[in-house]
Amino acid sequence: MHEIAIRFELSLQVAIMATAVAIIIAIPLGVISAVKQNTWIDYVVRTFSIAGIAMPSFWLGILIILGLLISTQHFLGEP
């Protein structure tokens, strides 16, 4: 039971941090999109939000991992 409690605590921390990051990103983008309604900024924010909702999480995770691998190889200069 003790090991479940430890893992639950870590999982709860990850969930809270993910929610906080999502709120920090989503609210300002939503406000900007509402203020600049029907402009190119609104269309870009709307497109990314719809794509984020429609994309399966496992596919988004793979894309993030590939992006990090490519960017770190680029900055480190490794082939």
Features:
mainly alpha, extended
> How far apart lie the N and C ends?
47 Å
Mean pLDDT: 88
Query: Can you write the helix and strand succession as a string?
Result: HHH
Unreliable residue stretches: none
Radius of gyration: 18 Å
Give the overall shape, derived from the CA principal axes.
extended
Can you tell me about this structure?
The model has no long low-confidence stretch (mean pLDDT about 90). This protein is about 85% helix and about 0% strand. With about 80 residues, the chain is an all-alpha fold.
At a glance:
With 79 residues, this protein is an all-alpha fold. The chain is built from three helices and no strands.
Topology (elements, then pairings):
Elements: H1 2-35, H2 40-54, H3 57-76
